[in-house]
Amino acid sequence: MTELTLHTLDDARWNAMAVRRIDGIDPFVIAVRTTGIYCRVGCPARTPYRQNVCFLNSIDEAREQGFRACKRCHPDAGDLSPWRPKRIGTKEP
């Protein structure tokens, strides 16, 4: 990939993270350098500063780089679809 392509992809991923949706983008992992945590899109945690964020393609890549899973959105507990709060009083399939 060229530098321009990576920059454009990072911008698209940052925008997806900000609105907590991944429409038209492959699932990805959000890693925060200052906390050492990786999250999925839609995590209810506070949005980190842009300069502290890197985007990775997989959970395995995040673990290889020394990040640990977020305890709020649990990105390692399934697929990387956007996090959604569980509804109280409904049965999970």
Describe this structure in words.
The chain has helices at about 5-20, 60-65; strands at about 30, 35-40, 55, 70. The protein is α+β, with helices and mostly antiparallel strands and about 90 residues long. A 4-stranded mixed beta sheet has the order 3-1-2-4. A hairpin with a 4-residue loop joins strand 1 and strand 2. The mean pLDDT is about 80.
Describe the structure concisely.
The protein has helices at 3-19, 59-64, and strands at residues 29-32, 37-39, 53-56, 68-69. The protein has 93 residues and is an alpha+beta fold.
Topology:
Layout: H1 3-19, E1 29-32, E2 37-39, E3 53-56, H2 59-64, E4 68-69
Parallel strand pairs: 2-4
Antiparallel strand pairs: 1-2, 1-3
**Biggest sheet details:** 4 strands, mixed
CATH topology: DNA Methylphosphotriester Repair Domain
Envelope shape: globular
Which CATH class is shown? Alpha Beta
| Average pLDDT rating | 81
Distance linking N and C termini: 40 Å
In spatial order, strands of the major sheet run 3-1-2-4
Number of structurally distinct domains: 1
Radius of gyration from CA coordinates: 13 Å
